[in-house]
Specification:
about 280 residues; alpha/beta; 8-stranded mixed beta sheet; 9 helices; 10 strands; about 40% helix; globular
Amino acid sequence: MEHKEFNLVSKDGTYLAGRFWKPSGYPRASLCIVHGIGEHSGRYDSWARKFCDRGIMVYAIDLRGHGHSEGQRGHIDHLSDFFEDINALVHRSKRNWGNLPQFIYGHSMGGALVLSFLLKRRQDFSGAIISSPWLQLVKPPGAFIQKMATFLDKVLPRVSFHTGIKSTQLTHQAESQAETDNDKLMHHHISVRLFNQLNGATRQVLKQADGFSLPLFFSHGSADTLTSFEATRHFASRVGFMATFFSSEGASHEVHREANADEFFEGIMRWMEPKLKKNSLV
């Protein structure tokens, strides 16, 4: 296996840091990973290696305002900025491995972004994996706070607030919690503009459950205290036959960092395998 870091430049010139994991043999497919709020692509190293061990090429970037990429922490001017970042990543994957089945994977905020990206930009993938998506927060800000956020968006859009996310809400695994707490690239910021843009995007996604033309694999931990398990399950049911829903019983927000992560991974692979066999050229 080969693991390297690389650089990308988004459409507006923003510098983005990325990395890839290449299998030792010829890849069977290519997978692009989009991370959640406050994190970065490096946190998916062990997870990406599992896919790599199954012959899948993996690409990931630090979205602007995250990790080693440029930009104010936890802020964007418009959600389309994130879409351009994702598009740059997808373009890299397709440019290098356009003959292979292409998949895209989004976690938490990244899950919401991928769903919105699919609806607004492109659905030319063999499938999409959506993990613990930000479709509905378990404890959203109150009505007054949201009204204030709408007002501030017009005058002070870059004002940031603490997300309040704790490592103990991400996983039950003490080792992973400590890793998160000690990760200097992690941040806990979200600007007024980013919050409002995400809120608007998720509302639009929830209205367009019938707008997907590719297979979707949804997963969520039943003990998630950040994003709503029920909202994801209900949305998947509305998408219909194109959607598969994987319930990870007792898991928190980061299912891929829980004790039953292997079960989750095998669920993804069972879903992917028919698509790999159908489309593989090797």
